[in-house]
Amino acid sequence: MTTRPPVEVSWFGALCDDDYAQLGVVDPALRSSWEHCRAIAVAAEAGGYDNLLLPSGYALGIDGTAFAGGLAPLLARLHLLLAVRCGELWVPQLARQIATLDRMLDGRLTVNIISSDLPGERLPAGPRYRRTLETMQVLRRLLDGEAVSFHGEFLDLDLDPPSARTADGRCPPLYFGGLSEEAREVAAAAADVYLMWPDTLPEVAAIVADLRARAARHDRTLRFGYRVHVVVRETEAEARAAAAHLVAALDDEEGRRIRERSLDSGSRGVSRQAELRDAATDDGFVEDHLWTGIGRARSGCGAAIVGDPDQVLAKLDSYRDLGIEAFILSGYPHLAEAEHFGRLVLPHLDHAPLRPRV
Fold this sequence. Notes:
eight-stranded parallel beta barrel, alpha/beta, 38% helix, TIM Barrel
């Protein structure tokens, strides 16, 4: 019998105007707002989830950092996975911001580093990822309480760490993803958790093996996370019907518009999600219980695990057998699907709540 370590199970904060009962059909009640996203967070904590991803966008939704600060006093147990885009803030100021939020959360902050273009910017992948690596290296040192003398391509500074310190005086875990050669090297050199979007089981195994080898060359180890949607119901037929309903009103042109509005719409990861859709069967499944139809209106994470509770649990366990130690899940609409998964699957998934770093 396979012994699997407990996993981290996170839900999605839907801060980027990305909540629908049917994809492409805007419901004002589901638009990103303090009230709606707060309700998702409170439900995630009550439902037993370990962490909550707060995504980052410019043209869409609400700001994740401000939201995290407002949410912190309302949570007693849930961690927050705050997405930050490299270049949006001068790194010393970003360090102060992260340290302050971590204190407000009593050591329950985690950070998702994003290496995309900034609003109005078009930076080639090479320099963009070099900026990301410099950001992660300096950010970690500052949050570890170290003085920094760093003279790179994008950062040139000599300074002491900020007086604001995290709850344990250490840098929170840095989550990072990307499929390109440049992204993989940044993850191997500087991340704590490598995140990947949905893919077939053989490809997930290959990515894990590749990143482990790259990290070893840096004398480091990585944890691995998997970002995927879920559609779970009491029976497989009900789950497939719910999935079909989700895209039943979606116009192809509207789906294309939704995909292209993201700053990351041209990335290698997004291209891979399109390849999975192209390889899928007529009903959208690229392998057992992995449905790509959701990617018709998603620029990024573009597939969902669809099935009854036993099927969804078995699919998650198959990823765990490949080395996945953290799941970041979502579903539409987010409040309702969090309840379905929290009731039908989460009690049977061996997960250990994250411990505050104090």
